[in-house]
């Protein structure tokens, strides 16, 4: 399965943020974190303060400011609110993907992200984002647990992604990851297929055509929302021997603004594939 599941809605969130959110950060060199107001004889965070913190978190996410986002949300790691917890899972995971993070710290953050995602799901099974990030983080943990465990978790991952889409059909990221699930199993190496056959009576299978359907659906829901969806559309068409459509999508990646480290890696891969197509 995937080495790096996606960030979500970066482009659309940026457009959606209001001037009020931007004003939270203007004229200051340091983040002015909202500290939770504690009610007398209670540990409950005031609803207004909760909304303000979540607004700040979403703003930082839209800016790709991963470290500050994690610093903000880790203050709420003991929260029982799934809205904090799934965002913290996402922030921990994104932090683990930074090139400056050591291998040891990457592993710690990967398991930390999974723990937060699991807790978010326990607190609110009706949260599409909790299902999505649980699936993503479970896949990431599998990278440390070995091929057998990773493949063994594949149906669980797929089922949570399907549930996320059921709860929010307009979430392009969940649809994209379902496509990635199909793509991963369509290109599964023979030795991993053997492992899958040992684990399951009916091993997971998928086709590039199925992957393509999900990737196209994600673009229909939210056009140009994620550079990797564009890349995988190009790669899928390459696998289907449709060079013309493959080049069209890879050129979209080439023109996509590279805002994150992942965007830059995706951009480089797209350029390499375009050279391969021309060669």
TrEMBL record:
Q: What is the lineage of its organism?
A: Eukaryota, Metazoa, Chordata, Craniata, Vertebrata
Self-association and partners: Interacts with microtubules.
As for family, the record states: Belongs to the RMDN family.
Q: Which GO terms describe its molecular function?
A: microtubule binding
What InterPro entries does its record include? RMD1-3_a_helical_rpt, TPR-like_helical_dom_sf
Q: Which keywords accompany this UniProt record? A: Cytoplasm, Cytoskeleton, Repeat, TPR repeat
SUPFAM superfamilies according to UniProt = TPR-like
Q: What is this protein called?
A: Regulator of microtubule dynamics protein 1
Q: Quote a single Gene Ontology cellular component term.
A: mitochondrion
Subcellular localization(s) per the UniProt record: Cytoplasm, Cytoskeleton
Transmembrane region positions? none
